[in-house]
Amino acid sequence: MNTDASSQTSGLVDENSSLLDKIKALEPQVRAAADSIEANRCLPDELIDSLRATGLFRATWPKLLDGLELDPMTQIEALEELSRYDGSVGWIGTFAAIGGLSVATLDPESVKELFPTPDVVPAGQYALVGRAERVEGGYRVNGKWSFGSGCRHAGVITGGCIVTENDEPVMDDNGLPEPLTIYIPKEEANINLDTWHVAGMRGTGSHDYTLTDHFVPAKHTSDSRYRARRDEPLYSFPALFLFSHLPMPLGIARAALDYVYQLGDTKRTLPAGRLLKENGDAHEVVAKAEAALRSARAWAFEVMGDIWDTQCRGEQLTSAQRAMFRLCLVHVTRTAKEVVTQVHDIAASSAIQQNSPIDRLMRDIQVVCAHVVVQPKMYRPAGKVLFGLEVKNDPFF
Predict the structure, then answer these.
(1) What backbone phi and psi angles, to 5 degrees, belong to 11?
(2) DSSP label at 68?
(3) Which of 88, 130, 148, 184 is the right S-S partner for 203, CB 3.0 to 4.6 Å?
(4) Listed residues 71, 103, 135: the one ending a domain
């Protein structure tokens, strides 16, 4: 694959336009590739090159390291648009964009070794499913990870681990296993490229990968609590990377409403045979869905704007701010699922065809909602804070 994307994407991307405008310029290419993305369970190389040319992969990299260091709202807006064109492309673009947040946890020498340019992206699962035995100079790592989204196109593979000594977990001050994230060149991982057979988000290619007695230098690891080694505002809130769960559901839900508005011009409903757009039930459904989606989106930008302002002032976030952040992630995703489900229902027989856009959107939003970060139980940390209680032992709070 050509890593100098400019030679393949000239004419597609205006270097002087905003990230959002650059993403919009790729809409025809993304939509044209949608069926092959679904069938092949990965993005084509030429689309990866086009995404790279927009600067998206540099979005969270520090400016001092040739990155864009964009605020979260600018990123969400662009990634929401990308997700509207195709959920899988939005997913891959999102997790490529936030790569700089994890890079900020590494020392500068390791960054240079692992990431020669900001266009090299990491992929992998951060859940602590591996075991990293302390040895001289680093760790001996064993593990099997899943959900390596975009691993075909990544340059670095990551993995969450529990630190061990003599095969026993090392406990931290809170009595919990000490977490560690490893970073290795992609070619060192054993990637099984035939494990991603799923209902939705098929194009993300989120395959399994393993390591067996693999040595990882200590300098190529970081604390899985995502404590940054940089002082810029973008890196001051360790859990900020979770904003990545906002743009995809927003874009997918917007695509669902786009679809039903188009369907309204052609679909006739029984028994009167009126067009869907003339049906009173449809009017009520889309009006409520539109209000719900717009409200959730507005609140997401309100929450993220408040967090960003606090970061830029050099202040620590309050418990209330962190609670609203976590609540917002779940609320936006669950609202998006409701919107897509409502559109699916009023599309009725038009939604059951495999080639129907709403069929894919429905499958995609189901997979988005399966992520642990946005499951209903994740309402609980915010609920505790609202009752005046303390949230303990939550690394992402």
Answers:
(1) 95, -25
(2) -
(3) 88
(4) 103
